[in-house]
Amino acid sequence: MNSTNNRTILLKKMMAVAGLTWFFYIVFHLFSVLTFHSGEASFNDFFMWLNGSVFYPVLLALLGSTILFHVYIAITRQLNNNSSVGERYKKPYPKAIPRTVAWLGAFVMFGFIIIHSFQMLTTKTADLYSQLHLIFSHPMMLAIYGFGILALSTHLHHGLTNVLQTLGFSSNKPHNLALVIVVAIGLGFASIPIGILYA
Question: Is the pLDDT at 52 greater than 60, yes or no?
C-alpha cells in the first residue's frame, strides 16, 4: 500500500511539473503574441527569430512530451479512481463543477491546443501578422479561439489553485491569486482578436 501511495504521490508531482511547464510557456507565448500590438514588423521579426532559433525544436519537443504525459496521467488517475474498491478511496469531485463538464472542458482545451498548434506550425512566419488578420476574419475561428481560451482559463485556475495550496497558501488566497493571474492571461490573449476586429 505504501509503495502504491508513494507512486501516486510521485505521479501527481510529475503531473504538476508538466502542467507548470505549460503554464510558463503560456506566459511566454502571451508576451510573444502581445508584440502584435507593436506593429507588423516587430511581430513578424520576433516569430521569424523564434522559429529559426535552435531553441525552437527543443521547445516543441518539451511541450509535446509534457502535454501527452499530463493527459495520460490525468486519464489513468481518473480511471484508477473510478475502479477503486470502496467509497473511501474515491475522490469526490467539486459539486460546483460536474465531472462531465470538467472533462468536456479539458477535451475542448486539448482540441484547441491541437488546432492552434497546427495553425502556428503551418502558417508562414514571415507573413504571420497578415495571416492572423485573415484567421480572425472568420467567425468560426473567433468562436474556436474564444471557447479555447475559456477552457484554458478554467483549467489554469483549477491547476494554479492546487499548486498554490501545495506551496503553502491558505484560505481563499490560492483561489483569488489564481483568478487574478488567469483573468490577466485571458484578457491578454483576447486583446489580439479584439485589436484586429476594431482596428
Answer: yes
Neighbours of 140 (CB within 10 A): 7
* Residue 50 pLDDT level (bands cut at 50, 70, 90): very high
Instruction: Please state, in angstroms and as integers, the Cα–Cα distance from residue 132 to each residue in 32, 46, 109, 171, 189, following that order.
Output: 14, 15, 20, 42, 13
* Sequence-distant (≥ 6) Cβ neighbours of residue 25 within 8 angstroms: 59, 63
- Residues 172, 161: Cα–Cα separation, whole Å: 9
Question: What tens digit of pLDDT does each residue of 104-123 get?
Answer: 777 888 888 898 888 888 88
At 71, the amino acid letter reads: V
pLDDT more than 70, % of the chain: 80
Q: Quote the CA–CA distance of 36 and 40 in Å, as a whole number.
A: 7
Q: Which residue has the higher pLDDT, 34 or 4?
A: 34
Report the distance separating Cα 46 and Cα 87, nearest Å: 53
Q: Name the residue with higher pLDDT: 70 or 192.
A: 192
Residues 6 or more apart whose Cβ sits within 8 Å of residue 103 = 78
Distance (Å, whole) CA 195 – CA 101 = 31
Retrieve residue 178's grid coordinates: 489564481
Mean pLDDT of 47-66: 93
Q: How far apart are CA 105 and CA 154, in angstroms?
A: 8
Q: How far is CA 9 from CA 3, 5, 88, 94, 192, in A?
A: 10, 6, 17, 20, 39
